[in-house]
Amino acid sequence: MQRRTLIQTAIAGLAASALPAAFAQGAWPTGKAITYLVPFPAGGTTDVLGRLISQKLGMVLGTSVVIDNRGGAGGSVGSEIASRAAPDGYTLLGGTISSHAINVSLYPKIGYDPVKSFAPVTLIGTNPVVLVVNAASPYKTLKDVLEASKAKAGGLSSASAGTGTSQHLSLELLAFKSGVKFTHVPYKGSGPAIQDVIGGQVDMMFDTTVVAAPHIQSGKLRAIAVTSAKRLASLPEVPTIAESGLQGLTDFEVVSWQAIFVPAGTPAPIVDRLHKEIRTILAQPEMQEKMKGFGMEPADMTTAQIAAFQKAEVEKWAQVIKAAGVKVE
To answer: Does this model's pTM top 0.90?
Structure first.
């Protein structure tokens, strides 16, 4: 109930996140509104985190921070828009493992370079992915899922937030390592995708704990396994995929991540100020509690460390995509 309330409160905070701060330290730097561009529809992980952060950031910077959802192509559409924005500190982008590590290897052409087109500001945190099915589903273990998919023409259907997202690649990695086929059903964001799993229109879905945990807790979804190397404190009863002991899956691990970027060329003093203020916000006990309640592991990296981490992720997923033969649908 607590996680569901946190999510609902965050989503409902659009109006609050757009209000000017009356008790600010000073305008940023002229009082013009900041656009926090979320390259996914409302209701997903990136959107929820963006609303939580923007509400507090606006108060600190003394200006409005307005969420702008621009979903499509696994985060590529909104990211391209952000890459073309003026590098003046008035456009922030909620970047993810999809938009800033995966898509460059997945799509034949995207309108930005995930590394060269942006400057990293903050790594918000990492978030393992959980495999879920409808609460009324007959599948209770990973073995059940794999056996059912083998027996069904085309395999079980699995929703995702879009082609190339961590949800999609978790599925492709499972298919590649297990040798079992599935039918991928891409959506334009986690929100509509998980609703169709809840409604029974799709057999299953990999999604981040930020989105899935409230539905697991409410009894609408059943958690089958998590993709992290170890069990999660927030879902201690849910085994890891590696724990299944099934052939080919003993080293299975996928961890999603969330970050904030600005267009390349944004002056260093602005990047440094944003990094400092957002890190301070994320370090607040209230925010730490909310993130852990979502199943996220908070991160604390310098901008240089984030850049190195991102480059390594780009290389890692390029290898996975090539090995699994993932194609854009």
So the answer is: no
